[in-house]
């Protein structure tokens, strides 16, 4: 059965049925559009990463290069990002979230807080030890105009993973100590990336011991 409504019959103001139908249609439209837009953003992020990786620190790709790589239009780009700097910020945020997930997964494999801290340090500094990851990260940071600033913004979310093991190790202020250690280790990562140096196993072990010492400093 198909219900029809004559155009000569006025709609009832604030009719609940009419409002519900309108809302459902609007929500379906927004849902489809949201899915399409999420796909556009992911294509732009992936394309930007590929182009920047190829260019390295020798040249900075233009928005037009990224759009062409993604197979999208300038309108699509500026629908989501007001500038290339905003895109770089999104790439850094995306990378931080991926690293956060990786570190959490690695730390979850360990039963002791000491081992969890060691996994965290290894995971962070491994970003400089792997040549492909290091080159890609450096290229993204270089496109943002600052190698250090972009990584410093990542230290806070990464440091949250250290709060619980630091508390177990006896830290008097796990939040402060975790933030301090994260800032220091991520700062060292920045130096290694910029200098194109791979941290040695001895450096990783020494860094881990320093982090553990900070956490244990609050013990009576």
Describe the structure.
The chain has 220 residues and is mostly helical. It has 2 domains: 16-81, Arc Repressor Mutant, subunit A (Orthogonal Bundle); 84-220, Tetracycline Repressor, domain 2, CATH 1.10.357. Helix content is 75%, strand content 0%. It contains 10 helices and no strands. The chain has helices at 16-55, 63-70, 74-80, 84-107, 113-129, 131-143, 147-159, 163-168, 174-195, 201-216. Helix 1 (16-55) crosses helix 6 and helix 4 packs antiparallel against helix 6 (131-143). It is flat and about 60 Å long. It starts with 15 loop residues before the first helix and ends with a helix.
Provide a brief overview of the structure.
With 220 residues, the chain is mostly helical. The chain is built from 10 helices and no strands.
Terminal Cα span: 79 Å
* Content-based structural category: mainly alpha
Enter the CATH topology name of the largest domain: Tetracycline Repressor, domain 2
- In the CATH scheme, the class of the largest domain would be Mainly Alpha
Give the proportion of residues in helices.
Answer: over 70%
Number of domains: 2
Q: Number of helical segments?
A: 10
Shape: flat
Low-confidence stretches: 1-12
Percentage of residues in DSSP E strands: under 5%
Characterize the biggest β-sheet.
Answer: none
Secondary-structure arrangement, i.e. CATH architecture of the largest domain: Orthogonal Bundle
Strand count: 0
Please write the string of helix (H) and strand (E) elements: HHHHHHHHHH
Mean pLDDT: 86
Radius of gyration, rounded? Answer: 24 Å
């Amino acid at each position: 059965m198909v219900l029809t409504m004559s155009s000569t019959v006025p709609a009832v103001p604030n009719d609940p049925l009419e409002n519900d139908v309108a809302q459902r249609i609007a929500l379906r439209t927004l849902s489809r559009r949201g899915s399409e837009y999420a796909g556009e953003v992911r294509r732009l992020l992936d394309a930007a990463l590929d182009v920047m990786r190829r260019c390295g620190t020798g040249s900075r790709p233009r928005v037009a290069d990224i759009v062409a790589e993604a197979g999208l239009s300038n309108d699509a780009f500026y629908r989501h990002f007001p500038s290339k700097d905003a895109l770089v910020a999104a790439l850094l945020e995306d990378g931080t979230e991926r690293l956060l997930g990786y570190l959490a997964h690695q730390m979850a494999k360990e039963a002791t807080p000491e081992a969890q801290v060691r996994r965290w340090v290894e995971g962070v500094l491994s970003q400089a030890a792997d040549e492909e990851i290091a080159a890609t990260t450096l290229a993204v940071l270089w496109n943002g105009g600052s190698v250090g600033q972009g990584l410093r913004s990542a230290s806070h979310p990464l440091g949250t993973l250290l709060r619980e093991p630091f508390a177990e190790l006896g830290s008097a202020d796990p939040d402060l100590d975790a933030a301090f250690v994260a800032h220091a280790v991520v700062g060292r990562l920045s130096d290694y990336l910029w200098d194109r140096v791979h941290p040695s196993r001895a450096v990783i072990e020494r860094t881990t011991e320093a982090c553990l010492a900070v956490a244990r400093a609050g013990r009576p």
